[in-house]
Structures are given as C-alpha cells and as structure tokens.
Amino acid sequence: MRVMGVDPGLTRCGIALVESGRGRSVTALDVDVVRTPSDMELAERLMRVYTQACHWLDVHQPDAVAIERVFAQNQVSTAMGTAQAGGVIALAAGQRDVPVRFHTPSEVKAAVTGSGRADKAQVTMMVTRILGMQTKPKPADAADALAIAICHCWRGPMMERMAEAQKKAEAAAARHRQRIAEAREGSRA
Amino acid sequence: MRVMGVDPGLTRCGIALVESGRGRSVTALDVDVVRTPSDMELAERLMRVYTQACHWLDVHQPDAVAIERVFAQNQVSTAMGTAQAGGVIALAAGQRDVPVRFHTPSEVKAAVTGSGRADKAQVTMMVTRILGMQTKPKPADAADALAIAICHCWRGPMMERMAEAQKKAEAAAARHRQRIAEAREGSRA
User: Fold this and answer.
1) Where along the chain is Mg(2+) 1 bound (chains A, B) (predicted)?
2) Sign of CA dihedral A102, A108, A111, A116
3) Which end of chain B is more exposed for a tag (fewer CB within 10 A), N or C?
4) A42 with B93: Cβ contact below 8 A
C-alpha cells in the first residue's frame, strides 16, 4: 500500500510518500515541505498547497491520503490556516477518488514511538530508524509527514477492517430489529 | 460591485450574492444554503461545497468573495470543518482571480446592526430591512451570508483604500530610509 502522509500547514506543509510491504516493513519513497510566505494572500497560499497536493497525487497515485487531525485548542493563531490547508488537500484527494483518513497527533506518536506523549525529537529518531534512513529527515514537518504515513500503513488496514465489521454489525442489528417488528406485527394480526 | 458572501460550514454553508449601488444601496440577487450530511466522508463534503462555490462563481462572476472569519475558540467541535469549508471556497475564488476578503462576526454584526454584539434575530431583522425583502431570509445561515455580503459592500472599498494607503506609506518610508542611508554613505566618503 502506498500512503501519502500530510502534516498540514500554510507556512510549512509536510508531504511524504511511504510504501508498506510485508508485516511492518515500510519504505520512504519521497518527502517534501511545501512553504508559502505568510504575507501572501490566503487564497494564493491555499492555491499553492492545493497545486502541490494535486501534483503529488497525480505523480505518485497513492492508495490513501493520511492527514494529521488538527485540534482547535492547539495554537489558536495557526489552527485555522492548518485546517484550511488540510481541507484543500482532502479536496484534491477526493477529486481523484483517493480515500482520505485522519489520525490524531497522539495516534501518530503512539504508532511510531509506542507513546502518545513522545516529543518531536523522539518521533524524528524513530522515523529515521523505522525507515532505515541515513540522516534524520528535516525540518520537523518532513519527519511528521513521514510519521503520519507510517502510522496509516500500520493502522489503516485495521481501521478499514473495523469499519467493515461495524457496518456488518449494524446491518445485522437492523435485520434483527426488523424481525422483531415483524414478529410483533404477526402476533397482533 | 457584486459581492458573494459566505457563511462557511459543512453541515450548512450559506452563500449569497449582493450588488451594491450608489451610497449604501444594496440589492440581494440570490441566496442559498448548501447542505452536506454529517455522516458523509469529509473529502466528499468538501467536494460538494467546492463544486457549489465554483458554480456560483462561474454563473454570477462576483467582483469579490467575502467570507466570515472563523475563530478556533467558538464551537471547537465544528470550527475545523467550518475552516475547511471556507478554505475550499477561498481556493475556488483564487483559481478564478476573484479577490477573497475576511470579516469577523463582530465586524459583520456592527456593519448591519450598528452593534458588534447583536444577536441572530437582530441581524436577520436588519438584513431583511436593508435589502427591502418581503420575508425574513431563512435559515439563519442564509441571513448571515447576506449580512457578510452587505458588510463587504460597505467596508470593502474602504479596506482596499486603506491597504492602498498603507502600501504607499510603506513605499515612502522605504524611500526615506534609503535617502538617509545614501546621505550617510556620502558623508563618510
């Protein structure tokens, strides 16, 4: 599975491509940081991020896009721009029928370091080790994008299976409710 | 001036078109609320909002798009979706070279009611009166989109003039600093 990991942002947006193999083996295929100047108009900045995302999607044709989920509580001043950047990337993926999934920062940290409260240095170190890279990915946004992609390689299939199982359980519950309703109707008639 | 006003959102996104005439006269040309089901995938919801925004921009060819600025503090659970919806609309406008401006909720309220702390009912009442509408626009998102468009019709030209004046002042200051630097170089030589 080929996963495009995204650490969304307007000033710096990390994008990475990771391929998963057997078991937990993962390989980094590409990583980049899209930057837009903070004095540029918002629409222009979003266009740059969107254009780059489209380019990545068209060139690399990933099987899924994994984006870090932003929380409004963190860094209020930049949270809105971060959400908007994530939004235009999700749009670009949706326009190409590539499924988009979100992972929270602690899910990403837990996946790569074993602890949801790991710091940036630990995440970078583990990403470097997991991918067998010669040097640490820089800046932090690049390492984060790789971490998100790794996280999805490992959690994604399980998430899909769980969603599938939940759908089946809901369908079974609905059938059960209908049978009960029918039985009641029958006893009334 | 033709202004497309947007009250961004994923569940309900208000879009309105208002034309300004002489002085403070404004006319509503169209208003609609784009809805997307909350159980739909985020990328799909963003695509719907984006497609509708593109359609409005292409059909109505507004001179500007005015979007209500979202704050992370308000309604944390929906703020991210709201920002993402605003982001894809700003992107659609940028792709068509239509300038995008943002107004805060209190700027919008102050523009139409005279008070930045007016409630929804007051905003709706004033929008209905200002636009000379026979019935109140419904739902609240439609009234809000109209209010944002009106706000931009009235504040927009002033904002552009102020931005222009600030640019000129900055250029003058830069020239002044350069002259001083040159004079110092001259006195040293």
Assistant:
1) 7, 141
2) negative
3) C
4) no
> For residue A115, how many other CB atoms are within 10 A of its CB?
13
pLDDT in tens, B17-29: 999 998 889 999 9
Contact state of B43 with A93 under an 8 Å Cβ cutoff: yes
At A73 the pLDDT is 61
In a domain? residue A172: no
Q: Strand, coil or helix: what is B149?
A: helix
Residue A134 lies in a domain: yes
* pLDDT tens digits, one per residue of A76-103: 668 889 999 999 999 999 999 999 999 9
B79–A72 C-beta distance less than 8 A: yes
Mean pLDDT of chain A: 93
What is the number of domains present in chain B? 1
Has B97 been annotated as catalytic?
A: no
A6 contacts on B by Cβ (under 8 Å): none
Asked whether residue A178 is domain-assigned, the answer is no
The ipTM of this complex is 0.83
On whether any CB of chain A is under 8 Å from the CB of B106, the answer is no
B87 at interface of A, judged by CB pairs closer than 8 A: yes
A15, A39 Cβ separation under 8 angstroms: no
For residue B109, what are the domain limits? 2-162
Find out whether B182 is annotated in a ligand binding site. Answer: no
Tell how strand A12-20 and strand A2-7 pair up: antiparallel
CB pairs under 8 A between A and B: 87
Q: What is the model's pLDDT at position A147?
A: 97
Chain A interface disruption, residue of B13, B42, B102, most A CBs within 10 A = B42
- The nearest CA of chain A is from the CA of B22 a distance in Å of 29
Residue B79's closest CA among B57, B105, B44, B51? B105
CATH number for the domain harbouring residue B62:
3.30.420.10
Write out pLDDT tens, residues B36-45: 999 999 999 9
Does residue A185 have an active-site annotation?
no
- Ligand-binding annotation for B141, yes or no, is yes
> Does the pLDDT value for residue B57 go beyond 90?
yes
* Torsion sign, CA atoms B76, B78, B127, B89: positive
Sheet with A12-20, side-by-side order of all strands: A26-35, A12-20, A2-7, A64-68, A100-103
Tell me whether residue A185 is in a domain: no
pLDDT at A75: 62
